[in-house]
Amino acid sequence: MKVVKIGGNALKNIDINVLKQLQTWLAEDETVVLVHGAGPMVDDATLKVMVNVVQTQVWPMLHHVLGQAHLSPTLLTDGVVARIKDAGKFGVVGEIDSITTTLMAGRLYVIGPLVSSSQGELLNVNADEIALAVARHFKADTLYFLTDVAGVLDQNQQVMTELSPTVAATLMSQEVVTGGMFIKLQAAFMAMQVGVQKIQMGRDFQVGAKLVLGDQE
Ligand SMILES: Nc1ncnc2c1ncn2[C@@H]1O[C@H](COP(=O)(O)OP(=O)(O)O)[C@@H](O)[C@H]1O
Ligand SMILES: CC(=O)N[C@@H](CCC(=O)OP(=O)(O)O)C(=O)O
Questions:
Q1: pLDDT tens figures, 123-149
Q2: How many DSSP H helices and E strands does the chain contain?
Q3: In ligand 1, which atom is closest to the CA atom of 183?
Q4: Nearest CA owner, ligand 2 atom 1
Q5: Which of 23, 59, 63, 116 is most buried (most C-beta within 10 Å)?
Q6: Could you tell me the residue range of the domain that residue 139 belongs to?
């Protein structure tokens, strides 16, 4: 089972080879969950805008691109429930509370950064955190983070082809890794701790444009 997270910016330009790889996996009866981002949105005031952006722009665009590649996704909304993360501090920001749905082999599922609470209220959940929760719950063997950079960049702006938790911690403390990549690396190492064997980051699935965490590959 594979989880593929595509960030909001990377979504705007999905590589044909990414679509081809999805087709190949599905033809092999692999199950794939595509977790998409939406770009930066923060608080209560922006939630309505975010709902609008996701429903009128992000989902239609993603369905169109996948449809052109003859990929028909199933929305993974039922059975995935979020809860308020830290009421008062983050407003309508949520985190995944429970996953009770089951997945069928050879199907492509899609989930984005808006997840309902048990009261039916939509919450803004970080898409990297969703990818982690989904990978953990379904015991994914592989977790890809497709983003708008070729990988994690070192102090010389070079893509790191391998990154251990120790080196990552140093890059984070030296503020070489910041912002969205900081959150992504945290999610990636958590995923590694809960048993996801292979974790990669980059613009696509290709070797050389990716990050491999730990000692695999
Ligand atoms: N050391 C680093 N290597 C790569 N990207 C970094 C680094 N430090 C900060 N970043 C930033 O993190 C961004 C990726 O995170 P984010 O914008 O959240 O992407 P996504 O939308 O794909 O989740 C990059 O575009 C870059 O601006
Ligand atoms: C709580 C939180 O962080 N929500 C995210 C949801 C969108 C997202 O995660 O998009 P990317 O994957 O493209 O960054 C946000 O508001 O930015």
A1: 999 999 999 999 999 999 999 999 999
A2: 7, 12
A3: 18
A4: 126
A5: 59
A6: 2-213
Q: Give the pTM.
A: 0.91
The CATH number that applies at residue 156 is 3.40.1160.10
Q: 148 CB under 6 A from ligand 1? A: yes
As a whole number of angstroms, the distance between CA 203 and CA 113 comes to 20
- The residue to mutate among 35, 41, 143, 147, having the most atoms of ligand 1 within 8 angstroms of its beta carbon, is 147
* ipTM of the prediction: 0.96
Domain count, the chain: 1
Atom 7 of ligand 1, residue of closest alpha carbon: 177
* Ligand 2, atom 3: closest residue by C-alpha: 126
Handedness of CA 138, 62, 59, 201 (dihedral sign): positive
What pLDDT, on the 0 to 100 scale, is given for residue 12?
87
